[in-house]
């Protein structure tokens, strides 16, 4: 029996996001899916919400967020991308 979905208050969701922010690498320049996959959800866990519950709630929230982005926001992000394209880690070749 999962009561998970209905017991997340707005305050809980904000705490979840705060816990996630606190566990991000300081030099977070990776694609969000990469960083998301390396996040230690057990460190994000709080109250009686397990790491897995936090991860599931984040997936739910992030799916909604992506649906509600305006074209203006997308264009602003695109402009940033054009100005500063994502640079993957380049392997250093030893001479």
From TrEMBL:
<keyword id="KW-0539">Nucleus</keyword>
<protein>
    <submittedName>
        <fullName>Nucleolar transcription factor 1</fullName>
    </submittedName>
</protein>
<keyword id="KW-0238">DNA-binding</keyword>
<dbReference type="GO" id="GO:0003677">
    <property type="term" value="F:DNA binding"/>
</dbReference>
<dbReference type="GO" id="GO:0005634">
    <property type="term" value="C:nucleus"/>
</dbReference>
<dbReference type="InterPro" id="IPR051762">
    <property type="entry name" value="UBF1"/>
</dbReference>
